[in-house]
């Protein structure tokens, strides 16, 4: 296959991602050919439109406020504080983050024959699109690329992506809660009780995730009568929704294997560590000097900002989270904390773009795996 042919197959990936995002409800899981639009679908599209409008408004308001806090004439001095070795170290740590993410995807897919030469570039490109495309549409690029380059089903892509995000959020929440407990002097009197609560919450969350399939099916059985009672079109919507939830539950069953689940959870600890190290290197280069629990709390807040759903590509929420953490735990002035938030978020976008371009080129150079070759690729 020549270069032009490869470009034709891959170049519109972001366009396909956007189209799938817009039509997510109807096309991702079902693949239905029914083109009729009923009242439920219209209402769903209206809600989606309202959420996107709200996200744009929130982003504009946050950025307008945050930009006004920064003394931009001194921003170049802030950049100059970080030596070349600091930038290189942060870039290497960010690369390790993406490599561990690729490893976690491979574990959750439970396909030992998944070729690294394609899975790693997909992870790099997906990470860039997540940060570049608005309204979380970049998440769908992973599913699209798995299907087009590795012939994996959409259900496999959804379940592995969902499992990765849940595990990541679980680790961030638990680590942040522990760091907050260790750094907050006013909580010292209740430290033992709170530590026990954190441990119990972590164990319950892990067990609930491990048994995610049965839990989802149980909730579906409880909610199904209410869904059908609320549906006015002969259970059509309720049945479609139930079928898709059942598919998700079936895919969640795939991680209910001790080896697979523990490996994915263990790998997620390394993804958190790599993300922490990336930001730790930059913060130390900027002169931030606090205890380790405070560092963990600050960086975890920055990670929470990236997960906030009601913004455009995280703009505004990420900077606000960094600013709040630096002011609360490092005592940094408001203007400096906000400027640091812009710097850290800007670095993440630049690093994601750099590695995303590399991933895009590597995907171009890699031949898609035919169905008959997938099983023998890494033998």
Please give a structural write-up.
- The protein is an all-alpha fold.
- The chain has a domain of 179 residues.
- The chain has 17 helices and no strands.
- The longest helix has 32 residues.
- It is globular and about 60 Å long.
How large a portion of the residues is in β-strands, by DSSP E?
A: under 5%
Number of continuous helical runs = 17
| Classification by helices and strands | mainly alpha
Radius of gyration over C-alpha positions, nearest whole angstrom: 22 Å
Which of globular, elongated, flat, extended, rod-shaped describes the shape?
globular
Quick rundown:
With 379 residues, the protein is an all-alpha fold.
Could you list some keywords that capture this structure?
single chain; 379 residues; mainly alpha; 17 helices; 0% strand; globular; disordered N terminus
SSE inventory with pairings:
Layout lengths: L2 H8 L2 H10 L1 H4 L11 H31 L5 H6 L3 H26 L6 H17 L6 H12 L3 H30 L7 H20 L1 H19 L5 H17 L5 H28 L6 H16 L9 H14 L3 H32 L5 H4 L5
């Amino acid at each position: 296959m020549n270069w032009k042919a490869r470009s034709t197959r891959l170049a519109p990936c972001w366009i396909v991602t956007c189209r799938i995002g817009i039509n997510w409800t109807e096309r991702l899981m079902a693949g239905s050919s029914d083109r009729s639009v009923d009242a439920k679908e219209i209402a769903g599209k209206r809600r989606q439109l309202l959420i996107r409008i709200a996200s744009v408004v929130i982003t504009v308001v946050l950025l307008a406020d945050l930009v006004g806090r920064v003394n931009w004439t001194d921003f170049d001095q802030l950049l100059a504080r970080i030596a070349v070795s600091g930038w290189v170290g942060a870039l290497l740590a960010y690369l390790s983050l993406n490599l561990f993410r690729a490893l976690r995807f491979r574990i959750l897919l439970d396909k030992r024959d998944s070729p690294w030469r394609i899975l790693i570039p997909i992870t790099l490109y997906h990470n860039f699109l997540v940060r570049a495309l608005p309204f979380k549409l970049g998440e769908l690029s992973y599913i699209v690329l798995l299907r087009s380059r590795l012939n994996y089903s959409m259900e496999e892509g959804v379940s592995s992506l969902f499992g990765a995000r849940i595990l990541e959020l679980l680790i961030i929440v638990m680590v942040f809660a522990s760091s907050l407990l260790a750094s907050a002097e006013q909580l010292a009197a209740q430290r033992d009780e709170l530590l026990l609560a954190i441990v119990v919450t972590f164990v319950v969350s892990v067990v609930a995730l491990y048994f995610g399939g049965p839990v989802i099916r149980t909730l579906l059985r409880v909610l199904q009568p209410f869904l059908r009672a609320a549906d006015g079109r002969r259970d059509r919507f309720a049945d479609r929704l139930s079928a898709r939830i059942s598919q998700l539950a079936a895919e969640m069953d795939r991680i209910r294997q001790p080896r697979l689940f523990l490996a994915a959870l263990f790998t997620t600890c390394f993804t958190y560590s790599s993300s922490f190290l990336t930001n730790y290197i930059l913060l130390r280069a900027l002169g931030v000097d606090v205890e380790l629990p405070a560092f963990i709390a600050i960086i975890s807040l920055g990670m929470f900002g990236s997960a906030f759903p009601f913004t455009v590509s995280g703009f505004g929420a990420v900077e606000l989270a960094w600013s709040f953490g630096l002011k609360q735990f490092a005592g940094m002035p408001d203007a400096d904390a906000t400027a640091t938030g812009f710097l850290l978020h800007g670095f993440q976008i630049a690093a994601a773009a750099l590695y995303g371009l590399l991933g895009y080129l590597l995907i171009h150079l890699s031949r898609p795996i035919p169905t008959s070759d997938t099983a023998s690729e890494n033998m």
